Amino acid sequence: MNAVAGAGRGALAAYGALGLPLAFAALPIYVHVPRLYAEGLGLSLALVGAVLLAARIVDAVTDPLIGWANDRLPRRRLWIALSLPALGAGMFGLLVPPAGAGAVWLFALLVAVSLAYSVASIAYNAWGAEVASTPAARTRFVASREAFALAGVVLAAVLPGLLGDGGGVAETVVGGVGEAPTGGDAGVAGTAGNSDGGAAGLARLAWIFLPLLAAFGLWTLLRAPAPPRLAALRAPMWLGLRAALADRGFSRLLAVFAANGIAAAIPSATVLFYVADVLDAEAFAGAFLALYFVAAAAGLPLWTRLSQRIGKLRAWLVGMALAVVVFAWAGLLGSGDLVAYAFICVLSGVALGADLTLPPSLLADLLARGREPVCPRHDGVAAPAGGGCDAGRRSAGPDLPVLEAGACFGWWSFVTKANLALAAGLALPLLALLGYTPGAHEAAAVGALAAVYGFVPVALKLVAIALLWRWRQVLDTGTEDLRSTVPSRVAPTRADMHRSGGG
Q1: 400-425 pLDDT, tens per residue?
Q2: CA distance 173 to 192
Q3: Per-residue exposure over 225-248, b if at least 16 CB sit within 10 Å of its own CB, e if not
């Protein structure tokens, strides 16, 4: 069995390595940068927040376009190699700003970093979906990526406190709540140290990030199994992006992913309030979060093995069911229930491992259904090959669009970022409506916080479970009942391009 099909340890480690610096880069942007520019450079917190929001909007709406462009030139290594230097330079500029840097500098660097990060991560995810030749290998590649990503999150959370002139590890980790390996928002509260010490720590962090990015990026680019050579996508942009959403397998998986993602993001937006005001244990927040992420990393092999025994879809159902049982318990806790909450952190962290590993692996299986060898004709239409040609994309039927990895992961990234925004937009106004304010001690307000933290995610998880179970046949096989009216993703003829308005 070859390294790709068998997913040997060397191949898995080489592919997963890039996940560490990518996750490492994501956390400081929304944890440390706001405080640096507000306190260190004198920008108002409202202005910093507005700039962050504007940059995030640009980031989210461009992800599907980046995915489409990735399929237009499906050379995953090339996209990553071009984006990593821009990511490194942008991160250094963000964390070590020149004197007098203001809102324009912040916005420009945030957009540059976000675009470079999206280009790298979308190509990277597509690479992992395409390189493995078996369903089990796809799961192992995803698990390797997420294991390195979790390590990157922990490093990025811990190092600023250690490298600065003040502040502790726990406080820095608390500031990172909500920043998951797959990307997310984090609050400003909890970043440790005085402003001078924090700036010094971030400057040292920037100098550490550059060699880290270079070393782990080169490890992946030079040592990971090469992704297959794919025929370039020629369909117009609107058709390529629409085709992904029109595929019933992908759209249903995306819907389940969205419901489950909002459920996971709500606790991230409210955990600091919960630990402080429900448990009366603000000093232990960092330890709880560290326990959560360590448990997630430890749980990755469990879900990999379980998916091989009972299937990925059923394993994901087990993971979501575990999260439901555990988090319903969180809504019943009160002041001083620290041991019980520690168990919740461990078990919900284990459940997080299923969310990190299995949905992208299911998507990779859907993508694999339409991939087979093709050779291009002189008229630009891909035709079945006799051998020795690039891996291509062929319609599974006259009305079936072929899923493209770049477009799918572009939409996937968009939904991930939308989930985080929706979670904050739902949970925080709901808390205000129920009478909760930070630092509240009234029983009713604290009870409302516990209910929103524990029971609202449970309700959304149950919706995701119901949808996944209802659509299990389509998502298990990726082939049943997937008819669509969207034209095939095979490269269109010149006549097709003319009719669609493409060039």
Answers
A1: 446 678 888 888 888 887 777 677 66
A2: 9
A3: bebbebbbbbbbeebbbbbbbbbb
* CB burial readout 382-392, b (16+ within 10 A) else e: beeeeeebbbb
> What confidence tens digit (pLDDT) does each residue in 182-207 have?
433 333 333 334 445 567 777 888 89
Pairing verdict, β 391-393 and 371-376: antiparallel
Residues 6 or more apart from 146 whose CB is under 8 A from it? 16, 19, 181, 182, 300, 353, 356, 357
Joined tokens for residue 446: 């604290």
Q: Does residue 357 contact residue 303 with C-beta atoms inside 8 Å?
A: yes
Strands in 342-393 per DSSP E: 371-376, 382-384, 391-393
CA-closest candidate to residue 156, choices 79, 99, 91: 91
Nearest to 247, CA basis, from 370, 360, 402, 394: 402
State the residue for tokens 């489409």: 68
Question: Taking the mean position of all CA atoms in its chain, how far away is CA 159?
Answer: 22
Mind listing the pLDDT tens digit for each residue in 447-503?
A: 888 888 889 899 999 999 999 999 888 877 543 333 333 333 333 433 343 434 443
In the CATH scheme, what architecture does the domain 8-366+404-477 have?
Answer: Up-down Bundle (1.20)
CA dist 494 and 436 (Å) reads 61
Q: What is the DSSP string of 393-448?
A: E--SSTTPPPP-HHHHHHHHHHHHHHHHHHHHHHHHHHHHHTT--TT---HHHHHH
372 forms bridges with which residues in the sheet? 392
Of 62, 402, 448, which Cα lies nearest the Cα of 231? 402
Give the integer Cα–Cα distance in Å for 376 and 390.
Answer: 9
Rounded to whole angstroms, the Cα distance separating 137 from 11 reads 11
Residue type for 361, please? S
Domain boundaries, the chain: 8-366+404-477
Vertex 154, ends 153 and 157: CA angle to 5°?
85
